[in-house]
Amino acid sequence: MAERKVNIWFALFLGWLLPGLGHLYARRAKYAGFYFLTIAGLYVGGWALSRGSAINWDAHGTYFLLQVLASPITLSLELMRDRGDMGLGESLPILDHQSGTVYAATAGLLNLISLCELHRRHMAPDAPGPGDTLRAELVVKRKDDAKAEGAA
Asked: What torsion do the CA atoms of 55, 69, 113, 53 make, to the nearest 10 degrees?
């Protein structure tokens, strides 16, 4: 049976639609689960902590753009948002609103990092990644490979 080719651009698109879905498509199930739980959990946690006020283009556009990196659901939440009073004050402490906003924006940045990692792994599957730099056997192997190339 022929091995299925992974279309990296489709995988990246799936990873933006739902964190971890691109990794699942690329047959990296452990990473898919980890990224989904981490990114979606952080995003939903920020949204819940702020009682929905964190997703708000009018109040903080830069954070909103970062939140869009987490998923296109951000756009849907913005369209469904009540345009009236944000409800900050005694009913919602400002710290909860600010923390939720930062959590959701951080989820977007983490999704961007996971998509970059997916792309890098696709382009060079055998190359050690950032997490592999402290593994001694890989560092020694790279030095030995460089010496062998220099001698040739």
From this structure: 0
DSSP strand E in 37-102: where? none
3-state class percentages of the chain: helix first, strand second, coil last, to nearest 5: 65, 0, 35
Mean pLDDT estimate for the chain: 83
Domain-embedded: residue 1? no
Q: How many domains does the chain have?
A: 1
Predicted structure pTM score:
0.77
Q: Does 3 map to a domain?
A: no
Structural domain harbouring 120: 8-151
- The distance between the two most distant Cα atoms of the chain, rounded to a whole number of Å, is 73
Number of H helices, E strands in the chain: 8, 0
Kindly indicate the confidence band of residue 125, based on its pLDDT and cuts at 50, 70 and 90: confident
E strand map for 2-122: none
